[in-house]
Amino acid sequence: MKIGISSCLLGTMCRYDGGHSRDKFILEQLSTYFDFIPFCPEKMIFTTPREAIRLTKKDGELKVKTSSTNVDVTKKVSDISKELANQIQEDELCGFIFKSKSPTCGMERVKIYPENKSGQSENTGVGIFANEVKQKYPLLPTEEEGRLADAWLRENFLMQIFSYKHIFEFLKSSPSFKDLVEFHTTYKYLIYAKSHNSYKYLGNIVANHGKKPLNIVLEEYKYTFLETISQKGTISNTYNVLLHIFGYFKKLITKEEKEEILESIDDFKNEIIPLIAVIKLLNLYTRRFDIEYLKSQKFLNPYPKELALRSTIKAYK
Ligand code: SF4
Question: Can you tell me which atom of ligand 1 is nearest the CA of 16?
Answer without folding.
Answer: 5
